[in-house]
Amino acid sequence: MSKATFAVSMIALGLGCSSAVIADTKVPVVTSFSVLGDLVQQVGGDHVAITNLVKANGDAHVYNPAPLDAKAIASAQLVVMNGLEFEGWMPRLLESSNFKGNKVLAADGIDTIKGHSCSCGGHGHHDDHDHDHDHDHDHDHDHDHGEFDPHSWHSIKNVKVYVKNIEQGLTKVDPTNADDYQRNAALYIQKLDKLDVKLHKKIALIPEGKRKVITPHAAFAYMARDYKIDFHAPQGTSTESEASAGDVAKIIKQIRSEGIKAVFVENISDNRLIEQISRETDAKIGGQLYSDALSEPTGPAPTYLKMMEYNVDTIVNALK
Ligand SMILES: [Zn+2]
Q: Distance, CA 4 to ligand 1 centroid (Å)?
């Protein structure tokens, strides 16, 4: 290589680098599903450019990643996912994208509920915290599929932990803006606390014994725990497993014997089963709940805060 060629290529390299830095100063973040897309936007504000994979009204249990998803992950500085094996397709996607950046498991450190693979009632029991900690480092591979119910965003208390995890993840990849992330997270947690108080008051309008709700899949055990609502579902905690005829018969029997007034459809599920259950009982369809995804921006649940309030309002209105 001649001296001249060397000098020219060094200049070209230098220019290439600096123009790239100036052109895009936002932190590229990939989120697995719409609820996390919103939470990262709340904490990251103007400093983040988010690519969200499973869109509004999408089902993250059974998602097929597209080639563009792998491309977004390959150029991301941070990937934020729920964890608790909610996104079963994510480990393979990260691997095939050769992702070497930072990863946040938003549900890390929350108060978990054990998972259900059947419709054995809507009551989650507390994780008694005595599971084998030797396996923690092999988290992705070593425990049974669906050991914990992954739908932990339906507890505002848990989402406060999500927000702290997201704040830490953003601070790690972009320490310059740490103060902004901290302030945004603190402000958002105040909003979460305020909403939690408000939702407790709304739920209190329905006597505890009457808070009985049927949904297609078992997505609301965390809401059940926080607000003392009795949720039942013919399908288990994942939409991958179909409800058996026995599960459906059990729910129908329960609706009749307990005089359950309302069944609900979901934004992400096949609702034919619920429609059938409604036809065979006196329970009316009380509305649509947003379980595993937000609505489109023009819908009633385009943000996490709006989703939580809409779900509670829908339940309270149907049970009044
Ligand atoms: Zn689900």
A: 61
